Amino acid sequence: MYDILVRSHSGLRWIALILLVVAIVNALGARTKGIYVKKDKMINLFAMVFIHVQVTLGLIMYFQSPRVNFVEGWMKSPQLRFFGMEHIAMMILAAVLLTIGRKKAEKESNPNNKHRKIFMWYTICLVIIFLAIPWPFRQALGITTWM
């Protein structure tokens, strides 16, 4: 079961990241057009939904993962600290900020301001997510592959 969760979480990450980038590019391109149509709303919504799915899968994995181990001195181990605290905290933070940003944008009456807020909040979330991904080049984490 854990292997299925890891593969799902790893594979869906690309869809979530692509949707987030599409939402950012869409907001950047449309922020001066003066319109906010259903397509814009759906792109932003799907990006948020997929980030929430990722966080949900991550939370399920958090309680099953052998990489999360709160042994004595776990804060001194880069790998245990990353998976036990940093990764999950940053991803939850990104999902919360994404949700807040989308809600603030939806409350705006000016379409340009909606796009501007989506661009700003979603870009901040994308940066946080990129920092929290256990990339294979982060050797201290013991990650050697994309899965």
Describe this protein's structure.
The protein is mainly alpha-helical and 147 residues long. It has one domain. The protein is 72% helix and 0% strand. The chain is built from 4 helices and no strands. It has helices spanning 2-30, 38-62, 78-107, 111-132. Helix 1 (2-30) packs antiparallel against helix 2. The chain is elongated, with a radius of gyration of 17 Å. The mean pLDDT is 89.
Which features characterize this protein?
elongated; single chain; mainly alpha
How many discrete domains?
1
Structural class: mainly alpha
Number of strands: 0
Name the beta content range.
under 5%
Task: Please give the radius of gyration in angstroms.
Answer: 17 Å
Identify low-pLDDT runs.
Answer: none
Average pLDDT number:
89
Give the SSE order as H and E letters. HHHH
Helix content: over 70%
Distance from first to last alpha carbon: 15 Å
Report on the biggest sheet.
none
Assembly context of the chains: single chain
Give me the number of helical elements: 4
What would you call the shape?
elongated
